[in-house]
Amino acid sequence: MIKSIHWYIILAFVLLGVMFGCAKQPYSSSNKIYRQQTKKFAKTLQANPGLPVSDSIQQPKHWVGTTNFNLRKPHFVILHHTAQENCNQTLNTFTSSKREVSAHYVICKEGTVYHILNDYLRAWHAGVSRWGQVEDINSVSIGIELDNNGSEPFPSAQIDALLALLNKLKSMYNIPTGNFIGHADIAPSRKQDPGILFPWELLAKQGFGYWYGDTSKVNVPKDFNGEYALKMIGYDMKNPASARVAFRRHFLSATINEVFSNAELKVLYLIWQKYY
């Protein structure tokens, strides 16, 4: 039984590699590297006692393989814009070992979706980032890159393709509504993407992230602390000004860093209540 499970895992990884290895130029060389990497990971997973294995105990004296396990599942979806000129440029970047950056999906302006890394594998898209108590975002997330230079609207075909993908990911991995966030949210001092033109409200209406709704009847308590609310939502508060900008960029399509106005505090108060 254990042996069959081991070979099920290695077969799955090899098939993932083959799936990407059938393409012709210009990505045949990077697809070959992908196959080699997945085979290497598969060998690690299926290794038996007595064989070198990258694990906490290199050669365990006693080994019993449990039947109760699976691969790690993503808990967040992080949305980016590529800040490049087109999809081909982005794909070239993500298939260059020198660049050391990747994602799981790239969505082009016309709606073409490139799946460039299996969801269960760890992409290098978040960098130094934090959300709540999670400091290694790459290990628990799926990264989606949208072909956009950072200063242009997102075409409807691209957003439709994104919504279809998000619906599949949310259903497949049971990702919480509040865990669909932007690169700028998790790295407020470094990043701006997906930018102030990204349609967060539209996504929230489909169940991907939160939105605040009508603020006309909101009464913010006098003791409400805006910085504490940002921290409880998930923002890194090492630089409060950057966190305020990130929040405004996501929910108010603005980039100023002053203290929140009364109208903005109403928005923050409603979003904070969504999380708690």
Descriptive report:
This protein is an alpha/beta fold and 276 residues long. It folds into 3 domains: 2-46; 76-190, 3-Layer(aba) Sandwich (Lysozyme-like), CATH 3.40.80; 226-275, no CATH class. The protein is 39% helix and 8% strand. It is built from 9 helices and 5 strands, in the order ααβαβββαβααααα. The chain has helices spanning 2-21, 28-46, 87-94, 156-173, 183-186, 200-205, 226-233, 240-251, 262-275; strands spanning 76-81, 105-107, 113-115, 141-146, 180-182. The protein has a 5-stranded mixed sheet, with helices on both faces. The longest helix is centred in the first third of the chain and has 20 residues, at 2-21. It is globular. Residues 1-5 have low confidence and may be disordered.
Element pattern in H and E: HHEHEEEHEHHHHH
How far apart are the termini? 44 Å
Q: In the CATH hierarchy, what is the superfamily of the largest domain? A: Peptidoglycan recognition protein-like
Radius of gyration, in Å, reads 21 Å
User: Main beta sheet: strand number and arrangement?
Assistant: 5 strands, mixed
Briefly note the structural class of the backbone: alpha/beta
Feature tags:
Lysozyme-like; alpha/beta; globular; 276 residues; single chain; 9 helices; 3 domains; 8% strand; disordered N terminus
Secondary structure elements and pairings:
Elements: H1 2-21, H2 28-46, E1 76-81, H3 87-94, E2 105-107, E3 113-115, E4 141-146, H4 156-173, E5 180-182, H5 183-186, H6 200-205, H7 226-233, H8 240-251, H9 262-275
Parallel strand pairs: 1-4, 1-5, 2-4
Antiparallel strand pairs: 2-3
Helix pairs in contact: 1-2, 7-9
